[in-house]
Fold this sequence. Notes:
- This protein has helices at 9-32, 39-46, 50-53, 60-83, 90-106, 109-116, 127-146, 152-172, 180-194.
- It is an all-alpha fold.
- The chain has 2 domains: 1-58, Arc Repressor Mutant, subunit A (Orthogonal Bundle); 59-194, Orthogonal Bundle (Tetracycline Repressor, domain 2).
Amino acid sequence: MLGEPIRDRLAERREATRREIVDAAWELARDKGLADWTLRDVARRVGMQAPSLYSHFASKNAIFDAMFGQAWLEYESVELQSWQGLPAAPRKRVLATAMMFFDFAAADLARYQLMNQRSVPGFEPSPESFAPSVRVVERAADDLASLGITDRGDVEILFALIGGLVDQQHANDPGGHSRRALLARAIGMWSDGVGLAAEES
Length: 201
């Protein structure tokens, strides 16, 4: 039909191969540890020769970059889908947002390490891959500002509380929920500290 765009099937196949490579890298990261795999391992898992992999990713760090961007885009998607359903009451809203990130982060150690810890020596995400994380943090800061929390230190302490409990969950009770149960207490103490009004029960 006239006017329909012409599909670039070669580009589509190339993008599908890149996704397959990234998926294989995640599988290896979960099986062997975030950094304890090689490009040869990835190539073997997707059924290609190692040199062919370089036509899609120039280095292991390039694969990490794609993984980093994908992970933050996935979280951003979860966040945006949940945004309209967040409670309006300030303390409940902060807790719901904290729980959302905690659940996402605690569900996958390798993904959390790449997103939030400097677990890969020498790896720095590209601006393009880093952009979703910047949007997520800016949106969180803007939402807190709408609740009257404008001091950046207060925001960073909140992030540290959530991240610290995620770290404790992964280190001491992987796959469990023990530190999630502490999140409400931690958010309550933080809310007291920054002066968020208590809500009627």
